[in-house]
Amino acid sequence: MLERLAASPGGLALSEIAEQADLAPSTTHRLLQALQSQGFVTQDNELGLWKIDVKTFRIGNSFLEARDFVATSRPFLRRLTAQTGETANLGIRDGSTAVFLAQSESPQMMRMITRLGSRAPLHASGVGKALMAWLPDDEFERVLTERGLARVTENTRHTPESLRDELARIRRHGYACDREEHAIGLHCVAACLHDEHGIPLAAISVSGPVARIPESRLVELGELVRETAAEITARLGGRLPDA
What we know:
alpha+beta, elongated, six-stranded antiparallel sheet, 8 strands, Beta-Lactamase, 45% helix, 8 helices, 243 residues, two-stranded antiparallel ribbon, Arc Repressor Mutant, subunit A
């Protein structure tokens, strides 16, 4: 039904929608009312025609925006994997979690693989901390209230004070480190992509086993990921915020 309405900017009558969607008029009307209550469609009071409403536009527009930075980032993720030999990821913030949307897998037999669509706590992941570092104070407090700082491993930062110190360091250096905070035996570095207002769009990361990414390699990889994130940000027309 939404597809039919999207293809008809002038709107469609109930009978036309029912015929095109191959549904009974009563079923069509019930579904339209449900969509209307959620802001997906609206009805013209004078003509009685049904049209797409603003919420459908917002969802579609969000997809286009996400598709832009995901598609733009993919070649850079592949380049990071070629440069480091490790898995590169891209994730976004959804409330108090990070959601992974794209990945370039390491060719190594022992490698880190994240299922696309999977989630990680913001405070206990490289991508999550990179995104969290730029949150306004009120949004930071909201995340703490919603989720808290539960320990995922013994290395997870689980107090507001220690997390605030860590986020300040991330802003200064431009990248985040996950030192076995989300999974024992795994290290990760991550940095943010920013829009034209300096607001985080997403974060990219490089992750791998501690055996190949020891503490001594974190700075080198962190700087590489930060520089790559800055390249993607510039390609998107964004800008880096003040630390």
